[in-house]
Amino acid sequence: MSENDIILLNTILDEQKTDTISQSDFFEIFAFEQLLKNFDLSNDEIKSGKTGGGDDGGIDGFFIFLNDNLILEKEINKDEIKKNPAIDLFIIQATESKSFNEEVFNKLSDTISSIFDLTKDMEKLKNFYNVSVIEKSSIFRDIYTGLASKYPKINVYFFYAAKADTNSIHLKVKNKAKKLKDKTKKLLGGSNVEVKFVGARELLEFFRTEKTYTLQLEFTENFSKGENDYAVLCDLVNYYKFVTDDSKNLRKYIFESNVRDYQGEVEVNKDIKKTLESGRKTDFWWLNNGITLIAKKASVTGKTITLDDVQIVNGLQTTRCIYDYLHTKRDLSKEKNKNSLLVKVIITEDVAVRDNIIKATNFQTRIPDASLRATDVMQRDLEDFFKNHGWYYDRRKNYYKNLGKSADKIISIPYLAQSITAILLKEPDIARGRPASIIKKDDDYKKVFNPSMDLRVYLNIAKAMKKVENYLRDRDAKFTVPEKTNFRFHIAMITIMHVYKKKDYQVKDLIDLDIKKVNKKLTNDTIKFVLSSASKFLTTQGGTLDSIAKSRSFLDNLLSIVKLK
């Protein structure tokens, strides 16, 4: 695990934390929320399971579910419970430690020996454990014994969450975890027991995971052949209902895997709207490529397909046009049976397959190579990190623009790739010469977006580049704005060299870059130096300013004559 995971996790925690709760307590609540996300618990329900504090026996969170329903008290109507009910017990230890400690399992082992041993008197255990642990333990015992005649299925999950690396767990710790698992199985005969380590990376993944959801789409025709792919024809009104919630708002979470956001009044979208509004007899689906969905699971009953965790990976523009068209209609019944839409559904949980489908389906219309990288983990990391520092990394084109964010704070994938290439890799000629294809090849992409790179480097470089560009916009009688922007990457690189007073600054320097030092005077002096050098080079070598900016020979010349004070 790189230090990035902890840095990113901390920024998320700092951004969400309120002043009314301690840092350690908030980390516990955050961990509970992420680990139990699929149960869709309220804030109060999450807090109700908090048992951490003095005399907690190593249990920070204690949650009991009966048939997926959170149990908060002993009184349940046993007569309403059918045979083989599912009892799920979640015992969570959450610490800000950067390592997993075997002492946690020593405590838990002693605790379960008491609370899961039905021969032990709960009254006497009050001398050893706090009231919350005792209360939760009593509820569990009552349910466990009260439903014994119904042969319940017992699942016990021990979660150990920390700001640690799950790839670096000591063997002693793993052995302790196994002993805890074996002891629990012995105490609760026939139970399924799991011990799960959750580190900084896993918490980030939980944080990004949408709650499990199921949506239904009514269709008129089904052209499917297998169980893992479907092609259905549905009425536009039914599709509109599928993509909107009870408040008639667009379900934005189903577009998480889309590589771009709504493109606005571009020609394609104008044509889609024109088709919808024309009232022509030709059915809409004849004139449109349709929608591609990915889901984890699907089932068809009659004329309805039920989809679990669905994502629209291609067709955002069409969906948004349909939404805009029908959202203004007062009576949707008048729009029924007028137009249909072709919807392709692919069932897969394989991330690689999903990304291949996203890329393949989005080649129907030309998309920049950078956009096809939008679903990479690294890109999501950058988006979260930037946002938590008041900046907006636009991994999905136009997303933050559509939200009305300031253009000065929006950083696109290509822009960041160019900035990293120019300032960090010291290749402003490449940054200027390959704006669209700079990360097309996998090797180039990995060189620019390196998962082991400290995320602060990316943010600092983006800030520096933006600041340099702001100064480049100033009017100057000697140099025009186009001349200056043509060499903006060279200017940015040389400016950073002046900040550190050396040409060979490294990653470690950029982690703590003082953006204030990228000031107006320094940048303007650099502008004059770079453009004067370009003019002289042009005179002696020939060519154009454009070709010089893209040439390695000019860069070598520039580096040979720059003087750092």
Please tell me about this protein's structure:
The structure is a single chain. The chain starts with a helix and ends with a helix. The protein has helices at residues 3-16, 23-35, 43-48, 102-115, 122-125, 131-146, 171-187, 200-208, 236-243, 267-278, 316-327, 351-361, 377-387, 399-402, 413-424, 428-433, 442-448, 455-472, 481-486, 488-500, 507-511, 520-541, 545-549, 552-561; strands spanning 61-66, 69-70, 86-95, 153-162, 192-198, 214-218, 221-222, 229-235, 291-295, 297-301, 304-308, 311-314, 340-347, 392-394, 410-412. It is α/β, with parallel strands linked by helices. Helix 7 links the parallel strand 4 and strand 5. It contains 24 helices and 15 strands. The chain folds into 3 domains: 3-208, no CATH class; 214-367, no CATH class; 371-561, no CATH class. Helix 4 (102-115) runs parallel beside helix 7 (171-187).
Query: What is the alpha-carbon Rg in Å?
Result: 29 Å
**Sheet of most strands:** 5 strands, mixed
Unreliable spans are 363-368
Helical content (DSSP H or I, runs of 4+): 40-55%
Mean of all residue-level pLDDT scores: 86
Number of separate strands: 15
- Number of DSSP helices? 24
Tell me the β content: 5-15%
Q: Tell me the count of domains.
A: 3
Structural class comes to alpha/beta
Task: State the end-to-end CA separation.
Answer: 39 Å
Q: Which overall shape is indicated by the principal axes computed on the Cα atoms?
A: flat
For the biggest β-sheet, the strand order reads 2-1-3-4-5
